[in-house]
Amino acid sequence: MDDIDESFDEIIPKVTYLYCKNCDKLITKRGVKVLLISDLSTELYSTDLSTRNINESLETQKFSLCNCKIRNTFCKSCSHDLGYHVIYPCDECNEGENNSHYWLFHSKNVKAEEQKDLDWDNQQVNLKENEDPIITLYPLPDYTICSICLDLIEEAVVLSCGHTFCQICIVREIDLNRKCPIDRKEISTELIFPNYNLRQCIEDVDIYCMYGCTKIGNDWTLSKEGCTEVVKLGRRKDHEKNCKFRTDK
Ligand SMILES: [Zn+2]
Ligand SMILES: [Zn+2]
Ligand SMILES: [Zn+2]
Ligand SMILES: [Zn+2]
Ligand SMILES: [Zn+2]
Q: Is 105 found in the same domain as 20?
């Protein structure tokens, strides 16, 4: 029993920021250095959460060193190889010392910056970093809200059971639980599909220009001095890039 506790003390991960080695773009703020269970001489970095800076191939492959099913990942900015996403771990890896990190990056593809002053357990689990504010003109119907993050659904995907979520939210849920959070039916990353109709419906939602929004605490509210323009969510940039209230032009 004591032995187990001690070995756990040693594997408290250090928070590491990972950047694409090719274009220097930040990939994740929740990186950590790991050794591969199926080949302990291979050094990799991993994260438990995908980010919007990571693109995932649609093609599933068997991993070369074990029976895990994987998909390759790429930098969203420059398309450079990053590593792979384990979409279904093999029995051997599932029984090994598994830290629930299913996103792995080859050390030759990423630049790592260890954050000595940050503590892993307090590191924010924020699926949607640096999002632009969304204040809608009218209350939205429930079917436009993701039941995982409780926000407006982004990049809507539908599962084989028929339920729809943000892509980033459901991929995380599949990594951790492999079940639909609503009906507990088994699901896999191979069986999620874009929900184009809902995506269109969400792009057409009327919102206020971001230069009319101000943050009070954690919530966005309308500012009295800012822009009062109403725009379609999917076309907000058309107005916002030239908005006369924009201060960073
Ligand atoms: Zn890149
Ligand atoms: Zn495996
Ligand atoms: Zn969501
Ligand atoms: Zn479901
Ligand atoms: Zn504006």
A: yes
Calpha distance 129→142 (Å, rounded): 23
Residues that place a CB less than 5 A from ion ligand 2:
66, 68, 90, 93
Say which CATH number the domain at 201 has.
3.30.40.10
Distance, CA of 51 to CA of 28 (rounded, Å):
7
Distance in Å, CA 30 to ligand 3 centroid: 19
CA 158 to ligand 4 centroid distance, Å: 9
Using the mean position of ligand 2's atoms as its centre, give its distance from the Cα of residue 101 in Å: 13
pLDDT of res. 9: 44
In the predicted model, is pLDDT for residue 5 greater than 60? no
- Residue range 165-219, pLDDT digits in tens: 999 899 989 998 899 999 999 998 888 999 999 999 999 999 999 999 998 888 8
Both 102 and 149 in one domain: the answer is: no
Domain span including residue 111 = 2-122
Q: How far is the CA of 168 from the centre of ligand 3 (A)?
A: 7
Q: What is the CATH number of the domain that holds 72?
A: 2.170.150.20
Q: Are 14 and 121 in contact (CB under 8 A)?
A: no
pTM: 0.78
H-helix or E-strand spanning residue 85: strand 81-88
